[in-house]
Every structure is written in C-alpha cells, then in structure tokens.
Specification:
transaminase activity, about 15% strand, 2 domains, binds (2S)-2-hydroxybutanedioic acid, alpha/beta, two-stranded parallel sheet, 15 helices, Aspartate Aminotransferase, domain 2, Aspartate Aminotransferase, domain 1
C-alpha cells in the first residue's frame, strides 16, 4: 500500500522556479532578471560590509544559542520599530507599537494572515491587481477571502483614479494590503498626494491597512520610503506593517523580518501580541536568531549603521542608473519612449510591459529570464550588457 499515491504533483513557485531554470541553463550568456535579488557589477549578490563586520563582532560576543522567545530578539524589535516608524515616533513612546520577529517578510505576512483568520473573523483582504504572486497564495493558505483593487491600467501605467474608485467600494472594516514603496511587481509607486487620498478612503471605509514594507531604502531613501507608513501610523489608531531585512541588509537566506502592530492603546497591543506569540508558536515556535542579531548589531552601532546606510544608498543609486542606462540603450531601436517608464519606476522591479510570449522568447532565444508577467528585476542587470539586452528586447518586440 502506498500512503502517497494520491498526492498530486503541483507546479512549483513561479519565481523560485525561474531561479532553478536559470541555474540549470548552460548558456554562458544567460541573464537572470527573475527573482528579486540585488547583484553587483560582478553579477554577485554580495554580503554587505556592515553585515560582515557585525558577524565578526558577534562571533566574539555571542554567549548562548538558547531560544530567543516568541517575539524574537527584543533589541532587534526595538531597532526595527524605530527604523520603520522613525527615531521619534509618538506611537512608540505611547507604547502602542510592538514588533514580532518573523522568518523574513514572508513569515510576517503569513503570521498576519493567520492572525486575521483566527482573531478578526469575517474580514476579507484586498490586494492590488497585480501584486506579488505569493500574497495571493499565502493569504489563501491562511483561509482568507481575497479580492482585488486595480493598480495598473491596460496602458501599463498607474491607474490612481481606478484604484481609489474601487477602494471606495471595499466593505467597511476589511483589510487592505498596500505596498509601502517599490511596488512588487510593477515598480510604480504612489505620490504623496495619492497616499493622502488613500488615507481618506481608509478612514471613510474604516479599513485596516496592512503595509508590506520589503524594500525600505531601495526607492528614494531609508527615511523617504517610510513616508506613507509614518503618515498612516500618525493618523490611524490601528495598523499592521510587515518589514523585511532581506533586501536592504542583504540577509535573504537568514530569513529576517518582523510584523509591526500599532494598536489603539498599550492594553490592546498586549492582547494582540499575546495572540501573535501563540500563533507563531504553532507556526515556527520561536524565530531564528542570527539575522536579527546582525541587524541589531548594525543598528546599535553608530559606525556600523553609517557603513550600512552608505551601502543601501549605493545599491539604490546603482539600480537607478541601470534603469536609466537600459532606457538609453533602447534609443537606437526607437524603443526608448515605449519603455521610458522603466526609468521612472522605483525599487528592484519593473513591469516592463513585455507580454508573456515576448518573455518566453527572451528566455528561449537569449537565455534572459523574467517573470512571465513581464516583471524584470532591474537590480539583476549588468551595466556592460545593457546594449545586448536592448537588442534582445527589440528583437522580441518586433
Ligand atoms: C521576489 O518577488 O522576487 C522576491 O520578493 C523574492 C521572493 O521571495 O519571491
């Protein structure tokens, strides 16, 4: 008797699947623009210098490998709260904000999904169309009812009017997921006046906002990228924020992040946090230590923090220059206007506007890997190969 003979094969995650396909591709000229991972001039995903220095310090100072508790490393949580909400945030001073350490931003999202399902029954969740594909599967796995508001129009441009109109129809009290900056997958971010309008709708419909904040520092700056989150934190009694240290600290595989909760008062926060610790215990028990210890070491040291801030700035500037460089490389093919949005978008990703067929042709003919939606990880580009990529894009766009 086979216990497993009724288990069906299931297609793997499309983004991670691309990474495997890329690694298996023998073409030496292959180019990986799939998974959201930053690459340097050598095509490597470097460990930031600040991380290496922090790790060296930790080797000397670490005293134990005992558990770190349900909410994780306390100093990590405190530093992350200040990084996200600001050095002088009233909600932190009023003890209305808390951080629960999670296995990356994805772990924070899953914890949030379970919290909504178990503690806020009946609430649906609203996602942008399009959104990071894992938002769809992850909240579905948590048993939530998922709906969408439009974000990008048929012209592959931000559709603010359509978005606001749809948000005004959301059932009172539901949860709305917002991308704090560097929208994944499109790269189109809202302006400050757009955010004000979203806030008005959130208040009018009494929605519970959930900010996915996975790219702090990759858009316009560490402080600038937190602008919308801080606006909402000041204006609303309750808020959920999932923060990731994967990209800005380069800690991808260390799975480091946190779920930040802002509650109406300190007592409510304690109640919510008791539930989060209990849910987390059933998911992963207690979080891993290393990545959080590294982040705490960096943010707790003036000199390491400066090294890290400079490194984040360098990554952000390089991504911006790659965006501009690609659009310039498209000039000889008369495609610079059609793809001008690539230079205007923010963060790692660009919704290029390439069709699934064109994406497939790029992979088959040139070993250039993009997500089938047309999303390109701009942070995976090689500045010496922009002309070559522009030519390939021109070939498949004919
Ligand atoms: C991405 O969207 O490529 C990244 O967020 C990595 C991931 O986990 O999918």
């Amino acid at each position: 008797m086979s216990h497993f003979n009724r288990v069906d094969w299931v297609a793997g995650d499309p983004i991670m699947g691309l990474l495997e396909a890329f690694r298996a591709d023998p073409n030496p000229a292959k180019l990986d623009l799939g998974v959201g991972v930053y690459k340097d001039q050598q095509g490597l995903t470097p460990i930031p210098k600040a991380v290496k220095l922090a790790e060296q310090a930790l080797i000397g100072s670490e005293q134990t490998k005992s558990y770190i508790g349900g909410h994780g490393d306390v100093s990590f949580g405190t530093y992350l709260l200040h990084l996200v909400l600001g050095a002088h945030s009233p909600v932190i001073d009023d003890k209305r904000a808390g951080c629960t350490q999670t296995a990356g931003g994805t772990g924070a999202l899953r914890l949030t999904g379970e919290f909504i399902a178990q503690c806020l029954p009946g609430k649906g969740i609203w996602l942008s169309q399009p959104t990071w594909p894992i938002h769809e599967t992850l909240f579905q796995a948590a048993g939530l009812s998922i709906s969408h508001y439009p974000y990008v129009g048929a012209d592959n441009r931000l559709d603010v009017a359509g978005m606001l109109q749809a948000m005004r129809q959301i059932p009172r009290g539901d949860v709305i997921l917002l991308h704090a900056c560097c929208h994944n997958p499109t790269g189109f971010d809202l302006s400050r006046s757009d955010w004000q309008q979203v806030l008005d709708v959130v208040k009018e419909r009494e929605l519970l906002p959930l900010f996915d904040f996975a790219y702090q520092g990759f858009g316009d700056g560490l402080e600038e990228d937190a602008w919308a989150v801080r606006l909402f934190a000041q204006a609303l009694p309750e808020l959920l924020i999932t923060s990731s240290c994967s990209k800005n600290f380069g800690l991808y595989r260390e799975r480091t992040g946190g779920l930040i909760v802002i509650a109406e008062n300190a007592d409510r926060l304690l109640a919510v946090r008791s539930q989060l610790a209990s849910i987390a215990r059933n998911l992963w028990s207690t979080p891993p230590s290393h990545g959080a210890a590294v982040v705490a070491e960096i943010l707790g040291s003036t000199s390491l923090r400066t090294v890290w801030q400079d490194e984040v700035e360098a990554m952000r500037n390089r991504i911006m220059s790659l965006r501009k460089g690609l659009v310039e490389a498209l000039i000889p093919f008369g495609l610079n206007e059609r793809f001008a949005h690539i230079a205007e978008q923010r963060g790692m990703f660009s919704y290029t506007g390439l069709t699934p067929e064109q994406v497939a042709a790029l992979k088959e003919r040139y070993s250039v890997y993009l997500v089938s939606s047309g999303r390109a990880n701009v942070a995976g580009l090689d500045e010496n190969r922009l002309d070559e990529l522009a030519r390939a894009i021109a070939e498949v766009s004919r």
